[in-house]
Amino acid sequence: MDRKEAAHKPDWRQSLWGGGFAMASRFAVGDKVHQAFSNHAEGTVVAIFKDRAGGLRYAVEMFGHRTIQIASEGSLVARDD
């Protein structure tokens, strides 16, 4: 398999409505979260997408790190503040 075959192409056929993807998710863009495991780092959800298997993944901008981490729904907990 070469690099072109290995590259994942996004599925642009997904329907959009109300400014977002039509999918049920536990968190929304802008929600404050922290990691349930690891170091309990805090961040803000900046994007939601589906992986190849159809599961939801969240792009979270981590506070203090200026990085984006990709997390599964089960690894995030909503913050109350």
Question: Can you walk me through this structure?
Answer:
- The chain has one helix and seven strands, in the order H-E-E-E-E-E-E-E.
- The chain has one helix at residues 3-6; strands spanning 16-17, 20-21, 32-35, 42-50, 56-62, 67-72, 76-78.
- The strands form two sheets. The protein has a five-stranded antiparallel sheet, with no helix packed on it. A two-stranded antiparallel ribbon has the order 1-2.
- Mean pLDDT is 76; it is low at 8-19.
- It is 5% helix and 41% strand.
- The protein has 81 residues and is mainly beta.
Looking at this protein, list some descriptive labels.
81 residues; mainly beta; five-stranded antiparallel sheet; two-stranded antiparallel ribbon; 1 helix
Q: Can I get a quick summary?
A:
The chain has 81 residues and is mainly beta.
Strand and helix layout:
Elements: H1 3-6, E1 16-17, E2 20-21, E3 32-35, E4 42-50, E5 56-62, E6 67-72, E7 76-78
Antiparallel strand pairs: 1-2, 3-4, 3-7, 4-5, 5-6
